[in-house]
Amino acid sequence: MTEQNQGAIRVTVWGENVHEGRDESVRKVYPDTMHETIAAALRDKLGQDVVVRTAWLQQDEHGLTEEVLADTDVLTWWGHAAHGDVDDAIVDRVQQHVLSGMGLIALHSAHFSKIFIKLMGTTCSLDWRAENDRELIWTVAAGHPIAQGIPHPLVIEREEMYGELFDIPQPDELVFVSSFSGGEVFRSGCCYRRGQGRVFYFRPGDQEYPTYHQPEVQQIIANAAKWAAPTSPRQLPTVHHRKNPGWFEKA
Amino acid sequence: MTEQNQGAIRVTVWGENVHEGRDESVRKVYPDTMHETIAAALRDKLGQDVVVRTAWLQQDEHGLTEEVLADTDVLTWWGHAAHGDVDDAIVDRVQQHVLSGMGLIALHSAHFSKIFIKLMGTTCSLDWRAENDRELIWTVAAGHPIAQGIPHPLVIEREEMYGELFDIPQPDELVFVSSFSGGEVFRSGCCYRRGQGRVFYFRPGDQEYPTYHQPEVQQIIANAAKWAAPTSPRQLPTVHHRKNPGWFEKA
Amino acid sequence: MTEQNQGAIRVTVWGENVHEGRDESVRKVYPDTMHETIAAALRDKLGQDVVVRTAWLQQDEHGLTEEVLADTDVLTWWGHAAHGDVDDAIVDRVQQHVLSGMGLIALHSAHFSKIFIKLMGTTCSLDWRAENDRELIWTVAAGHPIAQGIPHPLVIEREEMYGELFDIPQPDELVFVSSFSGGEVFRSGCCYRRGQGRVFYFRPGDQEYPTYHQPEVQQIIANAAKWAAPTSPRQLPTVHHRKNPGWFEKA
Amino acid sequence: MTEQNQGAIRVTVWGENVHEGRDESVRKVYPDTMHETIAAALRDKLGQDVVVRTAWLQQDEHGLTEEVLADTDVLTWWGHAAHGDVDDAIVDRVQQHVLSGMGLIALHSAHFSKIFIKLMGTTCSLDWRAENDRELIWTVAAGHPIAQGIPHPLVIEREEMYGELFDIPQPDELVFVSSFSGGEVFRSGCCYRRGQGRVFYFRPGDQEYPTYHQPEVQQIIANAAKWAAPTSPRQLPTVHHRKNPGWFEKA
């Protein structure tokens, strides 16, 4: 996979791929599926700096075999209608890889994915409304690499609304806050470290709206992929029995 | 001061007291001055749990003598038109008390006060507009004591707008986020620890609007006073030359 | 339970209660069991401010029925040898109560309890050695209520060593850091908010050492109980479908 | 400066350069001065990825003219004996550049430099002892880029001791914690964001010890330089009067 692009970030774009199959409205917005749209966007934005593949729910092991994950620097996750269909063993496997250093970008309704809830430890619940709200995304972390080149605010003309209270641990870094035409606010770009891995939650992307076709949204996901890529060798934190090395002793 | 109310929180409400003297519009909204309005609100909300005094810019030493500060658990600060007239020596004195454990509640345009900038280390700049925006204040920290009993959202019908990017260090705890009728957002309730002291920044309260008459706003300031009160004896962190106590030794 | 002590903090001290039954060495240190020792310490330190009960693994539902948890402000948890014997359904129940506002104090080897791992989302692994190390516990959060009245450092003459890297999310507040006679360090007092609840991890307390008989250790657990007690009504964060209230509209 | 190394990080290594002139003991350890030693180490570790210059107290404007700072991505700062001799106007200038995006690495006794205190807002006081302690530096942030390739622990055979309580704001990310032969601990690698800039405090480096000759210490400073380099165009956060763009309106 990496022959042509030494040093490129290896991204696997995971899609639930349910709405695309059953909802005509979604097929119209995303004729190539949501995951292929996101994958194409990353290739477009990052060029030689990235190698992108896709995987989806209906594949064997949801396309997330040990081999695929070991060959993935950053995994993006979009799910909504079928969180419950994701195999717990695969969720555990993904978590092990995140804690070992693989980056994870949780997109929109992935706030309720098993993997995100498992990494957060909270309910991850929120308020919502699907009525063509306008969303404004404001940068609140000056100079953060994920916000690089993004307008202030970024305007998404039509989106589902997600509102506070978003039941997540306080982010290690809060990058974006959204407001909606109903006046609601939402912490829409949230950075976490978990184990050796980095996790970024990014709010926009309901299946009924063309959000992932919007260049600035694509740019944020590309920026996040660069931010989330590991800088150290992958390694799961484990227990060690440590002998006293004898540097110091009780006096 | 504390004879009648053993264990009461001793609050000093500091007011710049400039607009009240020169602007008819402000006098109409705050005929008793802004600081007396805030002081009365704290007495009303906290009853026997608080002892409140006021101090203002035009007093000797701005009313913030060593004796007053030593007898103050929590200081609230409102300033806007005359930040530059505050004596640097008094600012240093207030900072020493905050770092020793005195709580500080910085209100609205106090984001540009010398004391707040000094404690933050950043420009504390922001975007603004004074055109009767409606402000919605949303709680983003579930169960935080400063948000206790506050509606979600708290609606302020008319206020000045403050928008991001608010150039502050990332808050230790972010409690409130506001949105405005122009679609802007703002981190409007921010908790910090500095030295032994706790600092809370609370956004609303432009002099032209009756914000400090609003019971929910008063409740937040009362909650914050309880949160910011010291729980340990006051003590300024200082350098100590520490002898090796001989617990451990180099082997 | 609360008739006699209006406003008292209701603490449930949970013990695994396995070592006490099978290990003569532990019975000698804790003839009344570890959980009864901790419970007595809390009663001693907090007096009328607390009502304490105990519960343990071998009871029906591990003593943690819905009724008990609903009547508990703060739950302390000690486990080591039998983490796997704790029923997943009970763990889920405890988690729901924490996210609703119940405080949780995870003690020592509870770093590997199901409930702590579930709330953290990481492996919670660490380094260790059980060879009578001396532990020094240093306060790094000036003026924090959990450190109130605690010597700097607090010296524990003999303890198991826990060393970094401790695989936890970065604490919302880091209160204590320990060093050991082997030169290792450990983040030994860690505060988190999860949902509406507060979580405190406190390192010392291996079953082979008399740590929970030491007054300063007891004081820290008492301080933590006060810190972790909820200040708002208990409520699990949940999803709400929010109608547009019409404050603002798309122009 | 950047002709030969397009994309290289431009580092300015600033030295107080007082001990080197007056203390024979320091000259023996650092015959080329401390700042030239650090500069050479960065060139050695980062090669083509860096362009390094030096500046020092005794130069005009301490060598930190507007031109130099505008051409600097990351500034490292070592000072100890002459903090008071640094011109306040230069400190303000450096602060403006940090808040605009220039990285700052504060080394050892720079905890008491005017620039570090100004960015922190606290006393930055600590405990100390200069008696050839052994220091162990432990990584507590798994997979952090500043810790990449660093042994766990990193052992420094002889150093001055710095102990808690270190009066700093809680770091945005805590990377390293040290222990000393006297049993003391210290948060020895601390990351902050201030404005658009990144600040890293790194503890070791007393003038009497050969710390900056140690390859692992050099590697940490090199890692920090990469971490602290700006990723966005330099820009000082400033106040903007924002007109209502008319996206939303009060209903």
UniProtKB/TrEMBL annotation, chains A, B, C, D:
Pfam families assigned: ThuA (PF06283)
Domain ThuA-like intervals: 11-228
Lineage: superkingdom: Bacteria
Region (Disordered): 232-251
Protein's name in the database: Trehalose utilization protein
Species, as recorded: Kribbella pratensis
